[in-house]
Amino acid sequence: MENEDMKIVIVGHVDHGKSTLIGRLLFDTGSLPESKIDELKRTCEALGRELEFGFVMDSLEEERDQAITIDTAQTFFKTDKRDYVIIDAPGHKEFIKNMITGASLAQAAILLVDAKEGVQEQTKRHAYILSLLGMKQVIVAINKMDLVEYKQERFEEVKGDVEKFLESIDVKPEYVIPVSAKEGDNIAKKGENMSWWAEDTILQSLDSFIVEKREASTALRFPVQDVYHIDGKRIVAGRIESGKISVGDKVVLQPTNIEATVKTIEVFMDEDRKEAGAGESIGITTEEPIFADRGQVICTKEALPGIGNEVEANIFWMSKTPLEKGERITLKCATQEIACSVAEIRKKFDSSSLEQLEENAEQLKETEVGEVLIKTDKSIAFDSFNDIQETGRFVLERGMDTVAGGIID
Amino acid sequence: MTIIIGIDGLEYEYVKEFGCKDLMQKSFGKTNIEEYEEPRTIVLWSSFLAGQNLEEKIVAMGNEKMWDFALKPEETFFKHFESFKAVDVPGYNYGREQHVLEREMLKKFFAEEITVEEFDKPVFDYHRKLKEQFFEDLEKDYDLLFYYFNAADVLGHLSFGMKSKMKLIYQDMNDIAAKAAAKGEPMLILSDHGMKSVGRYGDHQEGYGFWSNSLGKDLGNPKITELAEFVANEMK
């Protein structure tokens, strides 16, 4: 059993069976909340019925309606190999926001496609988002095989369509699996309805993935979340997004370019820490007094991020109200929050068909993707998404709404 | 044989939502019980049997005594049938022992002396027994067979807001109706009142009950008292 959880996200068209798949994963791995299911079990016994999966789904949907479990929080299940956390993604907006802000960064994705309906626009959009976010571990589940009489020909047909589209956006699924979440075929066990399928189930495929470790050797990126004064010490707190930091390191605060030497590393219940790495939330003190502020990024001189007022990026627009070129919005990257405007929309694409719609556009509409130039009011520290994801992705906000997600070229 | 299935607390909206086709039969709708001060079980069933509103008379007996109210056959539409069997019907031959037990259990639950599971058990036990007896009687030769089931109401008091559980109970009632419908005889299904959820619990719904019949006759929004005549005249 691995110690580390794997976070997964299930995406696809809204009607292609996400809730049923989640319910099935929980049901077949014995991970459902006990009390209500027990009450249903007892009721079934009292009425001389078997506890069917449909009743379980009724219960889960009821809880969802009451905002208790599914679709509102993280959901957990386990296999013999490891624990899994299903990150909720009720729509592409929340998905992008969560993925880009790093609040719930999934390490693997299941893209659901209805065997009867085949690839839909929303399927393509979600797949495009997976591509945009550089998701490497992807399973395509061709669901509702029960509706197409479990026919292998239909599976192959839909599989061909999905793979063709995914290839065009540079996503290579490691598995494409025919499933029926409703009947339980090829989720946790093979089932009897698709004897022609000799390959892995969804759970076997997930178990074959690796929980990607954060790369400790990459450049240090330590965005400042806050500065605290405790016992006369000035502690700069945040989470190390990449690289590592040690006592005695010469660091530089960006974008102000102030240099300092790390004096101590402050970790709760660990007084003698000399080093910390990616993913850890820590505080540091410095030999020289530095006036750090939320939003700045601590780095090393040897591997500085890009610094400037202009950022070239790809953005996915999610608001019903289009983006107007030059409109005042806010860019959030790591802990940085800076007023900005999109100065140029160099190209824009339909995220479903990938067709180029326009060059030098004035507007970007909902679900369109744009190659843009963003101008910020103040300098920001950033990286290319391909080099360091955490400081290479951002969201754009209009007022309190997240209106776009983006990655930096 | 004319069959009447009386189901206490059967909620019109749940019957529709859960797709209980055999409870809906060929024609179904809501009864109108707005004239009653409260949707009291004993009052509504008695009024149905007698074909007249007996609320004032029964309520005057007081809360405890009213459960002893029992009509004679000649005071009910039973008189129109040569042979009949009525089982557990409030206002006629209500099984007081079981229902006193259920009310006591309900009090104990809210006093936190017993769990939902402990509350449910005797209700299910009784329901199963009644169901078996009903299926046996369906094979016999009565002019009128009238069974009253109260599991939907009693269990609903603690679980009406838990739809997944209520769906199972409604499906069971639907199965009972399906078995009766298979006889191909005229059948009326009636509830005294509906229910509404209060969190996970349930309370009596004021204003309407449920009716359905196998004849396909659209009764509109009848008063419960009007149905006695319908049974006597059109379902024989």
TrEMBL record, chain A:
<dbReference type="GO" id="GO:0006790">
    <property type="term" value="P:sulfur compound metabolic process"/>
</dbReference>
<keyword id="KW-0548">Nucleotidyltransferase</keyword>
<dbReference type="InterPro" id="IPR011779">
    <property type="entry name" value="SO4_adenylTrfase_lsu"/>
</dbReference>
<dbReference type="InterPro" id="IPR004161">
    <property type="entry name" value="EFTu-like_2"/>
</dbReference>
<dbReference type="Pfam" id="PF03144">
    <property type="entry name" value="GTP_EFTU_D2"/>
</dbReference>
<dbReference type="InterPro" id="IPR000795">
    <property type="entry name" value="T_Tr_GTP-bd_dom"/>
</dbReference>
<dbReference type="InterPro" id="IPR009000">
    <property type="entry name" value="Transl_B-barrel_sf"/>
</dbReference>
<dbReference type="Pfam" id="PF22594">
    <property type="entry name" value="GTP-eEF1A_C"/>
</dbReference>
<protein>
    <recommendedName>
        <fullName>sulfate adenylyltransferase</fullName>
        <ecNumber>2.7.7.4</ecNumber>
    </recommendedName>
</protein>
<dbReference type="InterPro" id="IPR050100">
    <property type="entry name" value="TRAFAC_GTPase_members"/>
</dbReference>
<dbReference type="GO" id="GO:0005525">
    <property type="term" value="F:GTP binding"/>
</dbReference>
<dbReference type="InterPro" id="IPR041757">
    <property type="entry name" value="CysN_GTP-bd"/>
</dbReference>
<dbReference type="InterPro" id="IPR027417">
    <property type="entry name" value="P-loop_NTPase"/>
</dbReference>
<keyword id="KW-0067">ATP-binding</keyword>
<dbReference type="InterPro" id="IPR054696">
    <property type="entry name" value="GTP-eEF1A_C"/>
</dbReference>
<dbReference type="InterPro" id="IPR044139">
    <property type="entry name" value="CysN_NoDQ_III"/>
</dbReference>
<keyword id="KW-0808">Transferase</keyword>
<keyword id="KW-0547">Nucleotide-binding</keyword>
<dbReference type="GO" id="GO:0003924">
    <property type="term" value="F:GTPase activity"/>
</dbReference>
<dbReference type="GO" id="GO:0004781">
    <property type="term" value="F:sulfate adenylyltransferase (ATP) activity"/>
</dbReference>
<feature type="domain" description="Tr-type G">
    <location>
        <begin position="3"/>
        <end position="218"/>
    </location>
</feature>
<keyword id="KW-0342">GTP-binding</keyword>
Automatic annotation (TrEMBL), chain B:
<protein>
    <submittedName>
        <fullName>Uncharacterized protein</fullName>
    </submittedName>
</protein>
<dbReference type="InterPro" id="IPR017850">
    <property type="entry name" value="Alkaline_phosphatase_core_sf"/>
</dbReference>
